[in-house]
Amino acid sequence: MVGAHGGNFYQDFDITWGDGRARVLNDGHLLTLSLDKASGSGFQSKNQYLFGKIDVQIKLVPGNSAGTVTAYYFSSQGPNHDEIDFEFLGNLSGDPYILHTNVFTQGKGNREQQFYLWFDPTKDFHTYSILWNPLHVIFLVDGIPIRDFKNKEAIGVPFPKNQPMRLYSSLWDAEDWATRGGLVKTDWTKAPFTASFRNFQASACIWSSGKSSCGRRRAGSGSTGGDGWFDQELDAASQRRLRWVQKNYMVYNYCTDVKRFPQGLPPECLHS
C-alpha cells in the first residue's frame, strides 16, 4: 500500500540538469550537486507522490556560500501548482545559513517562515524531513518539528491535497536576493560549490496512472504497519519542541508581518 522505501539515488531519482555537475557516487548511496559560474545542477524523483513522509540527509555548501541556494522541495506542475519548500540560503563564512520554508497552494505562496539552525549544517549531514498528510504539512530538522502548516480548508484556506508532486532538489546561484537581500554577492573564486545528499527515505503514497498506491484512504481511517504518518499529528512533546524552535530560532514569520498585509493577515495566521 505504501511504497518507495528508498535509499538508492539511481533507483529513486533522475539528474535533470547541470551537464555533469550532479553526480551519483558510492553505488547510489551519495549524490552531490555542484555550482560554478556557468551552471548549477539538480535532480528530481522518478515517482510522483500524493502524501508521504520524506527524509533526506544533506550536508550544505561549506565556507563562503553567500549567494547560493540549496533547495529541496515537493512541487506539482502548472499555473495553479502546489509546492512545499525547504531552501537553504548561503552566507559569508562564519555567518549562519537561513533555512527558508514556504507552502504554495493552487499557485499562491507568500507563506514564508525562516529559521536559523542550532548547529553548523556544513560540518556534517543532518536530516531534513517533510511530513505531508491530509491534515498537516510538517517540516522537521533532525526529527524536531520547526513548522506545522495545518489544513484550514474549513476557513477557506486551500491545502495541498489533490495534486501529485515530485520531489526536486537543486543548487543554484541566487546572488540577486539570497544573502542579505542581494547585498552580498557570490564569490566565484570559491567555486565549485558542492552540497551532498544521502539516506533518502520515503514512506509515501505513489501516484501512477491516475491512482494512488494508498487507494482511497482518508485521514482518521486508522493506520497499519509503518504508515502511521498518514494520520500523524504533533503530540505534546513535539509541540513543545516546535515552540522552542519558533521562539529561539525563527527569524521571519509572514504571520506577524503586518506591514506586508495592510488589508489584514492571512486567515490561517488568525486561526492557528
Description:
Keywords: Apoplast, Cell wall, Cell wall biogenesis/degradation, Disulfide bond, Glycoprotein, Glycosidase, Hydrolase, Secreted, Transferase. The active site is at residues 83, 87. Catalyzes xyloglucan endohydrolysis (XEH) and/or endotransglycosylation (XET). Cleaves and religates xyloglucan polymers, an essential constituent of the primary cell wall, and thereby participates in cell wall construction of growing tissues. InterPro entries: Beta-glucanase-like, Beta-glucanase/XTH, Beta_glucanase, ConA-like_dom_sf, GH16_AS, XET_C, XTH. The structure is a single chain. The chain is globular, with a radius of gyration of 18 Å. Helix content is 8%, strand content 39%. The chain contains three helices and 16 strands. The protein has 272 residues and is mostly beta strands. The strands form two sheets. It has an eight-stranded antiparallel sheet.
Question: How would you summarize this macromolecular structure in one to three sentences?
Answer:
By secondary structure, this protein is mostly beta strands. Helix content is 8%, strand content 39%.
- Total strands: the figure is 16
Mean pLDDT level: 93
Helices and strands, in order, run as HEEEEEEEEEEEEEEEHEH
Strand content: 35-45%
Measured between the Cα atoms of the first and last residue, the distance is 32 Å
Instruction: For the largest sheet, list the strands in their spatial order.
Output: 1-4-13-6-7-8-9-16
Coarse shape: globular
Low-confidence stretches: none
**Content-based structural category:** mainly beta
Helix proportion of residues, in percent? under 10%
What gyration radius follows from the Cα positions, in whole Å?
A: 18 Å
Largest sheet: 8 strands, antiparallel
Output the number of helix runs: 3
